[in-house]
Amino acid sequence: MRSARSIRGRSVSFKITAMIDMTFLLITFFIMSIRFGQEGDEKITLPSADQATEVTEQRVELITVNVTKEGLYLINGVEQSATDYLRYVRARKEEGDALEIVVRGDKSSEFSAVQRVMRLTAEAGISDVSLAALQMGEATGDQ
Amino acid sequence: MAPLIDAVFLLLTYFLFTISLATVEGLLPSELALGDSFDQEKLELDEPKKEVVVRVVQTGARVQYFVDDWPSSSYEDVSQHIGKLPPESIVVLDAGATVAYEHVIRVYNRCLQVGVEKVVFPLTSGSQTAPRT
User: Is the pLDDT of residue B84 over 60?
Assistant: First the structure.
């Protein structure tokens, strides 16, 4: 067994350059790959549509409504009832913002849940609604 | 050197696993008719009937399609029918309440593929009239 004295006597060099390189690489990677999504996104499996266009920066203010498989509505990760949604959208509209609603519906959800969001949006006086989909080839699985 | 190579391999493996899963999300734009402000005059101008009603109905485990109330044997049949529509057509996409959302999106996507951009979703759930069988 080595004594404590012999260990203290050796010079220990720490190669910090490589570690800093790697750290910066990782930081850059995380910054580049960060998704500015919202909480609750992971619960939604979007349908596929190759005609879906990318979200551009010049769009007006977007309100994203996630519709889960069970037909629940999630806005900013918080579950909302249909009346809460209507109240929220009306309040935002009264603030004078040009709004657009993005409906992120789960592909297995019943259409009535998405339809209800559309109806409530129209009731709130907003006509711009976009349906989110993955930019992939057509969905398969027809019965 | 060895830890550096370890880290590089780790990153490489990570990229290999995640790259195929990263699919870009896009939007299908739609415009809602707001109450009575829907342009009635505009519709009257369209003398030749350009409106096609595509109905999607869930019957048990099956999804059935109707084009202008006539039954279509499958989605491919509907897809062919939509393919023949002129781009200025208006497609009324009337889906039943219990139809899975992906079937609706698929028809909508097909309309956009053939250049038909006027796709209307009736905001009341399902038409009351029974389709022809």
Answer: yes
Boundaries of domain holding A118: 41-131
N- to C-terminal Cα distance for chain A?
73
Of A105, A122, A125, the CB nearest to B101: A105
pLDDT tens readout for residues A12-51: 777 778 777 877 787 777 777 666 555 556 678 888 888 8
How far is the C-alpha of A56 from the C-alpha of B30, rounded, in Å? Answer: 16
User: Measured between CA atoms, how close is A70 to chain B, in angstroms?
Assistant: 11
- Are the Cβ atoms of B109 and A133 closer than 8 angstroms? yes
ipTM: 0.71
User: Residue B65's domain is classified under what CATH number?
Assistant: 3.30.420.270
What's the number of domains chain A is made of? Answer: 2
Amino acid at A54: E
Pick the closest to residue B94 from B129, B48, B60 (CA basis).
B129
Contacts of B74 (CB under 8 A, 6+ apart): A142, B65
Residues A88-127: tens digit of each pLDDT: 888 888 887 778 888 999 999 999 999 999 999 988 888 8
